[in-house]
Amino acid sequence: MRVTVHLPAPLRPLAKSKARVRMEVEGRTLGDLLAALRQEHPELAEVLLDGEGVLRRQVTLFVGDDEARHVGGAQAQLAGDVYVVVPVAV
């Protein structure tokens, strides 16, 4: 499945200065996407995920229009673009 991850400006240097990262994901869940992200962009994944691979509390991901934590977290089904929201201090 092809997914586009939209990044805020403070995180773009960790993804070769791209505002959008297009990724091919094996699987259909947010957890599958995060695993692929960890492999393709480890510096970015380090900011988004803690040492156990869990989304950091200060990071919010939207799958389409829905906040991922409210639609299953890592089990949220990918149905559109993923938007990353982080506080400016990160």
Q: What's this entry about, in short?
A:
By secondary structure, this protein is α+β, with helices and mostly antiparallel strands.
Largest sheet: 5 strands, mixed
Task: Assign the structural class, choosing from mainly alpha, mainly beta, alpha/beta, alpha+beta, or little secondary structure.
Answer: alpha+beta
Strand content: 15-25%
CATH architecture: Roll
Question: Count of helices?
Answer: 2
Helix percentage range: 10-25%
Indicate the CATH class: Alpha Beta
Radius of gyration: 12 Å
Element pattern in H and E: EEHHEEE
Instruction: Give the tally of structural domains.
Output: 1
Which parts are unreliable, with pLDDT below 50 for 5 consecutive residues or more? none
User: How far do the termini sit from each other?
Assistant: 29 Å
- The number of E-state strands comes to 5
Overall pLDDT level: 89
Q: What would CATH call the homologous superfamily?
A: Beta-grasp domain
The largest sheet has its strands arranged as 2-1-5-3-4
Task: Give the secondary structure arrangement, pairings included.
Layout lengths: L1 E5 L13 E5 L5 H11 L1 H7 L11 E4 L2 E2 L14 E4 L5
Parallel strand pairs: 1-5
Antiparallel strand pairs: 1-2, 3-4, 3-5
What this model shows, in words?
The chain is of the alpha+beta class. The protein has one domain (2-85): Beta-grasp domain (Ubiquitin-like (UB roll), Roll). It has two helices and five strands. A five-stranded mixed β-sheet has the order 2-1-5-3-4, covered by helices on one side. β3 and β4 (66-67) form a beta hairpin. α1 crosses α2 (42-48). The model has no long low-confidence stretch (mean pLDDT 89).
